[in-house]
Amino acid sequence: MFLTKSPNRILLLGVTCILWAGLLTACGGSAGPESGEAGLNAGGALPAGTPAASAGPEAAASAGESSEGEGTAPGNPPPSFSSSSFPYTAQTLAAGLDVPWEMDFAPDGRIFFTERPGTLRVIENGEVRDNPLLEFPAPFLSRGEGGLLGFALDPAFEDNGFAYTYHSYRSESGGVENRVLRLSISGSKAVIDKVLLDGIPGDTNHNGGRIKFGPDGYLYITTGERYEPELAQDRNSLGGKILRISPDGSIPADNPFPGSPVYSWGHRNPQGLAWQPGSGILYSSEHGQSSHDEINIIEAGGNYGWPLIEGDEAGAGNGAGMKLPLLHSGEETWAPSGIAFITQGPWSGELLVANLAGQQLLHVSLGAGNGEAAAEAMFHEEWGRIRNVAEGPDGTLYLMTNNRDGRGSPGAEDDRLIALKPNVE
Question: pLDDT tens-digit profile of 318-375?
Fold first, then answer.
C-alpha cells in the first residue's frame, strides 16, 4: 500500500508499482505462497473509493503464526506506471546462493555475506569465492527463521580485522537462543574471537537478527519475542527489543536503562535498521502479526507498544506514552526485512525497504521534517521474496532474494544477489 502519515494519523492511499524497461513485465498475478510478518491492527482511514485489502488466509487460521510471510499477500495488484526516470540498471551479481541474509562492504572492495544455514562467504573481484570463510560449528542451529543472520564489519576493519554476527544456537537446556559474536577475519579465513552477548530469546520464528553500527560507533541489535508477546513489554528480557552495546560487549554508559543493553522495547520482530543521513535519526522495520507491518522512528527508551497497540491504533485503555509508527501497511502485508538509506544520486536521502511476502522493494520518500512519508512499490513480484537491500560505497544498490527459505517459489538462479547500478548520464 501507499501510505502517508501526518503527525497524528496514518492515511492509507493506493500503492503504485514501478515498471521499468527490460526488467519488469507486469504488476499483476498472485503473490507467492505466503503473507508476511505483519504488524498490529489498522488505525488508518481509507479515503472514499479506495478498496480495502482483505486479510491473508493465515490471519483467519492463526493470528500468531504469520512469520516472514506465510499464506498469500492480500490486496489487489498495485497499478503500474512508466519508469523511464528509474535511475538504475539491474544485473545479477551472484546466483545459486543458500538463503543469503546480510551483507557488508570492505574498504578493499570485498563484499561479505551470510547464508542462513551457517556459512560466511565473500565476493572478491566480482566472483563468489568457492570456500566459505567460516562454517559455523555446534551449538549453531539453523531452523525456521533462525540461523546465521546479521553481520557487520567493524568501522576500523582495515586495522583490526573484526566483524560481528548474530546467530541462533541450541542452549544447554535444549532450547533455542541467539547470540552476538565478534569474529576475526584474516585473508580467506574467519574465526570466532569472542561472545559479546548471549541468551537472547529465540525459537523457530521471531528471532530478529539485524545488527548494525550506528554513527555513534555502538552496535545495535534487533531481537524478536519468539512468539511470547509478553517478552516485548518486559524490560528485563532481551526479547522484542532493539539493543545497543559497545564493540567489546560492554554496556554504553548513556544507554536509557543503566546497566542494560535495551535501547527500545515493545517490538514484535524488528529486522531492519538504518540511520537517516544528516539527521542521524534511527529507523527500523518491524513484522506485524498478519498485516500492519511497521516503519518506526526509534528513540532511546521508547516503547513501541507490542502487544498492547497495533499499527497506529491503541487498544482499550492501552497505549499511553507508546510510540506510533511512521508508516504501516494497513490490511496489506509487506513482511519488511532489511532497510537502507540512499546516500548518493537522485534519490539521496530516501529510504528503501525490502519486502518478503510483499515480494517488492518499497521506495519511501520522507517529508522535510514535517512527520510525513509516502511509499511506492518497485519490482513487485519480479524477483520474489526480497530479504535485504544495501547501498555499496559507489552508490550501487544490492538486493538479496530469499526464495529458498521454505516460503518462496525458487527459480533456476535463486537465491540471488542483484546489483542495481546507477545510470551514467
Answer: 678 899 999 999 999 999 999 999 999 888 999 999 999 999 999 999 975 566 898 9
Q: Could you give the residue ranges of the DSSP H alpha helices within 14-103?
A: 57-61
C-alpha pair distances (Å), 371 with each of 265, 276, 295: 22, 14, 13
Pure H helices in 62-166:
157-160
Exposed / middle / buried, residue 403 (Cβ in 10 Å: 0-12, 13-18, 19+): buried
Q: Within a 10 A sphere around the Cβ of 131, how many other Cβ atoms?
A: 10
CA distance 266 to 47: 30
- Positive or negative, the CA dihedral 195, 197, 202, 204 is negative
pTM exceeds 0.90:
no
Distance CA 337, CA 273 (A): 9
The answer to whether the Cα torsion of 266, 272, 273, 276 is positive or negative is: negative
User: Which residues contact residue 152 at a Cβ distance below 8 angstroms, ignoring those fewer than 6 apart?
Assistant: 102, 104, 163, 164, 165, 211, 212, 213, 219
Amino acid at 273: L
Q: What's the Rg (C-alpha) of the chain? A: 20
d(CA 209, CA 202): 10
* Cell numbers for 90: 539491474
Q: What residue has cell string 546480510?
A: 102
Question: Does the structure show a pLDDT above 70 at 166?
Answer: yes
Pairing verdict, β 17-19 and 373-378? parallel
The number of C-alpha atoms within 13 Å of 200 and in the hemisphere containing its C-beta is 31
For 189-247, how does the pLDDT look when each residue is reduced to its tens digit (9 = 90+)? 999 999 999 999 999 999 999 999 999 999 999 999 999 999 999 999 999 999 999 99
